[in-house]
Structure formats: C-alpha cells, structure tokens
Write a structure and sequence with these properties.
The protein has about 230 residues and is mainly alpha-helical. The protein has 7 helices and 6 strands, in the order ββαββααββαααα.
C-alpha cells in the first residue's frame, strides 16, 4: 500500500496500515509485524520490541517475560513462557492420537450423561416440593438403607445498587459501612487502554507505569472438542 495522497485514516483497518507505537503510516513491505499481527515501523520495532526466544515473534520489551537467571536471561512472549519445559513428560504422536480419540468419546458421553442428569434433577425437584422439609432439605431414597438424594434449599439475597445508595444517605456512611461491605471490580476497555499505554506523552508516563504495575496476567488453559474436518 502506498502512503501518499490516497491515504485515508478513516479507511484504514485497526491492525494494518499504522504502526501501533508511533501511529505513522507503514508502507506495504516496509514494516514489520508483532506476534499478534499488529503493524510496526522498523524504528519502533528496534527500540521497543524484542524477538521471543521460543517463536521468534516480536514482543514488546515491557511485556516480555524471562525465567530467573540474571539480566541476560532470554526473553519470551506470554504464550511461549507458559509452555511446558523440556523435561516435562509429553506424549508421543501415537499416545496423543489415542488420548484425543478417548477424550472426544468421553466428551460425547459426558454430554449425554449431563443431559440425562438434568432431566432427572427436574423430576426429583418436583418430587421434593411435594414432601415436607427437614432442616430446609428433603432426602429422597430409592429404598430402605439405599443411597439417596438430598434436595436442599437456600435463600440468596441481593440488593439493588441504586436503592441501596439512597439508603446509605439516610443511614449515614459510617453506620452503613458496618452493615455492608463495598466491593469494586474493574474491567479493562481494551482499545482505549492499549492506546493510552502505547502513548509517548510524558505527562502521563507515571500513570502508564502505575497501570502496567497493577496488571496481573494469568493463562487459563481450556480443552474443547473441535468438529471433524470435512473431506474435500
């Protein structure tokens, strides 16, 4: 793509024609990409990025991770850093194929069993509602001395935030704090946060460092079944 008179900022896709660091146009073939596919000019890539030891992709220096071993320890991206070490027992291709086949079969069986369990639960709940409760529970048994099923009942209370705020003004903040615990959670607005953290404005440098220090990352592993490939 030519970065000349035909360049229109509004027509550019978010992760293509602009360097994500300095926001200057990157001509086709003249720039680089980070490991996630974001465009980088060569100047920013050299100053702010480093090659991951594992995959070789470019990762921001302030996001790169290293294992204990001093300042010269190799840097890795978040994904490669979380991969298994070389001494971990990893199945070979034959064992892997057998495990995958078994997992897929068990997954299907689990879905069938789960659906049947849900059906039975609904019927048992209806049966329990027709019987007297003891200590807020009903125990159903299949026979004398046989294992049974306990249907328990609990009451969960929630409070409307707007109405509770009005009540706080009547009760008073000090007393209210002894009656309720206030909890605050934060969810990042990714687009705005990434743009702010990539800024080079000196006036917000301390704020950017504080936000980076507050960030805690953890990798969540999930295993799901994928559909069989269709034969062409």
């Amino acid at each position: 793509m030519e970065a000349e008179n035909n360049f229109r900022a509004g027509e550019v896709e978010a992760r293509g024609a602009l360097c994500v660091e300095c926001l200057t146009a990157v001509a086709a073939g003249a720039g680089l990409m980070d490991r996630c596919g974001a465009a980088l000019c060569r100047a920013c890539a050299g100053e702010f990025y480093v090659a991951c030891e594992g995959c070789g992709g470019l990762v921001a220096r302030d996001e790169a991770l290293s294992r204990p071993g001093g300042e010269d320890a190799a840097l890795s991206c978040f994904e490669c850093f979380g991969r298994a070490d070389g001494d971990e027992d990893v199945p070979d291709d034959e064992e892997l194929a057998a495990l995958v086949a078994e997992f897929v079969a068990l997954h299907e069986e689990t879905k069938r069993l789960g659906a049947r369990l849900d059906e039975i639960k609904d019927v048992l709940k209806r049966a329990a509602r027709a019987r007297p409760r003891v200590s807020n529970a009903v125990v159903l048994r299949g026979g004398d001395g046989a294992a049974g099923v306990r249907c328990g009942y609990t009451v969960r209370t929630s409070y409307d935030a707007e109405k509770l705020s009005a009540a706080e003004r009547l009760v008073g903040t000090e007393l209210f704090s002894t009656l309720f615990e206030r909890k605050v959670a934060y969810t990042a607005r990714r687009d705005g946060l990434e743009a702010f953290l990539s800024s080079d404005d000196e006036a917000t440098a301390d704020a950017r460092e504080a936000l980076r220090a507050a960030e805690q990352r953890s990798e969540v592993e999930t295993v799901t079944v994928v559909a069989q490939k269709k034969k062409k």
